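Record type: monomer structure entry
Structure origin: computed from sequence
Chain ID: A
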Amino acid sequence: MSTTATLTFAFRPLDPLKDAELLHSWVTHPKAAYWMMQDARLEDVERAYMEIAADEHHHALLGTGEDGAPAFLMEYYDPARRELVGLYEPEPGDVGMHFLTPATGTPVHGFTRAVITAVVARLFEDPATRRIVVEPDVRNTAVHALNEAVGFVPVREIQKPEKRALLSFCTRERFEQAVAAV
């Protein structure tokens, strides 16, 4: 797998107990600083993802590679009920999203862009999804560039309890235009 064209992914529900050890290694790695779980213990990760599994408005999936091995984490949520309540005016069909690619000793060129493309495409598979909302840390310039590459448009900075964030939106049309332009 050397180019984004050959990277294909599948998705499966995250199992908070079976996947906790793997997730713990991902979210506590220095590369995942913006995930804000650097000091989490294994039990903290289990608890956090058990809460997500029990929440009808927040979901976690593992993206898997062609070999079936876990390759990244994807979360999506209802921004009218989680994460962004009171911080922007939600519209019908809004879906919030987070994704995390784990650190690796052997980076694959284009991997993270292929991941975000797959995540956004997965969310737009649902015809009810009209717009995807993200709120990364304002300092996370790498993810801002990735977001823009798949069609996200920054709107404004917002203050969340844990960070200053860049509120951005992506419509289905902007995503399709961005993917077609590659």
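Annotation 1: The longest strand covers residues 70-77.
Annotation 2: Helices lie at 20-27, 42-53, 111-124, 141-149, 172-180.
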